[in-house]
Design brief:
single chain; 229 residues; mainly alpha; 11 helices; elongated
C-alpha cells in the first residue's frame, strides 16, 4: 500500500487532540484495507465528512479508494466500454483495429453472461469461473483455445481497474488463459486440392498468393503483405 516508505500527512489547523483523533481514524482505515475487516463506524463517518485535500492525500497513499468508487463502483459494462474506447493496451500501445474488434467480441459475451447491473467491484472470482463455464456452453465457441482467448481478453480489462483502485485484485488471475494449439481443424492440402484452388483464382496475383502459402510456406497475411511490392 505504501510501497515500503514511511508516509506523513501534515494537518493544518489541528491541535494535538484533534490530530490524535485523525491518527486513530487513519489507523482504522489502514486496518480495514489490510485485513478486509469492516471499517470502524466512527472512521467511516469521519471519512465521509473530510475535505477533498485530505481525502486526496489518503487516496495518494493508498489508504482509501477514489471518492467516486467509494460512492458506488462503476458498472462493469461501462468500465469495459470506456477501456475499449481508449483503444490502447495496458502497456499504453495503440491497439490494432482487429484487436479492438476482438475486445468488443469478448465484451459482448461478458455483458450477456453477467448482465448490465453488476459493478466492477462486485465481479468476483466465482463470476470469472461462471463466465468460463458459460463460454464452454456456447454453440459458436467449440474450441478450448477460443474459450481461453476470451478469458484472456476479460483478464486484460482488470489491471486498469486495479490501477484506479476500483478493485484490489484481478478476478481472472486463476482462470486458464494460456494459448493452446488445437489440431481439430488441421488439414493437409494435397497437390490435387491445391491445383483445383489455382483454377479458381481470378488473376495472377491470387495464384501467387497461393503459391507463397502452399509451396514457399509463407505465413498469410503477415509475410505475404511484407513481401509484396
Amino acid at each position: 500500500m505504501f510501497r515500503g516508505k514511511r508516509c506523513q500527512i501534515r494537518l493544518k489547523g489541528h491541535n494535538r487532540r484533534q490530530a490524535e483523533l485523525v491518527r486513530r481514524h487513519i489507523d482504522a482505515l489502514i486496518l480495514h484495507r489490510l485485513s478486509g475487516q469492516a471499517v470502524d463506524t466512527a472512521a467511516a463517518l469521519w471519512l465521509s465528512d473530510i475535505g477533498e485535500e485530505l481525502y486526496g492525500k489518503l487516496f495518494g497513499f493508498g489508504v482509501v479508494r477514489g471518492r467516486e468508487a467509494s460512492r458506488g463502483s462503476e458498472r462493469l459494462c461501462d468500465f469495459v466500454k470506456r477501456f475499449i474506447g481508449k483503444g490502447r493496451t495496458n502497456s499504453g500501445r495503440v491497439a490494432k483495429p482487429g484487436t479492438i474488434k476482438n475486445w468488443h467480441y469478448t465484451a459482448t459475451f461478458l455483458k450477456e453472461c453477467v448482465g448490465e447491473s453488476v459493478s466492477v467491484e462486485h465481479f468476483t472470482e466465482a463470476d470469472a469461473d461462471d463466465f468460463r463455464a458459460w463460454l464452454q456452453q456456447r454453440e459458436e465457441i467449440k474450441l478450448e483455445s477460443s474459450v481461453r482467448r476470451h478469458c484472456q481478453v476479460a483478464q486484460m480489462f482488470f489491471p486498469a481497474a486495479i490501477r484506479t483502485r476500483l478493485v484490489e485484485h484481478n478476478p481472472f488471475v486463476h482462470v486458464p488463459t494460456a494459448c493452446i494449439n488445437s489440431k481439430d481443424r488441421d488439414h493437409f492440402v494435397t497437390r490435387e486440392e491445391f491445383n483445383a484452388c489455382l483454377q479458381h483464382c481470378p488473376d495472377l496475383q491470387w495464384r501467387m498468393i497461393l503459391y507463397l502459402n502452399r509451396v514457399a510456406a509463407m505465413r498469410c497475411p503477415s509475410e505475404i503483405v511484407v513481401a509484396s511490392p
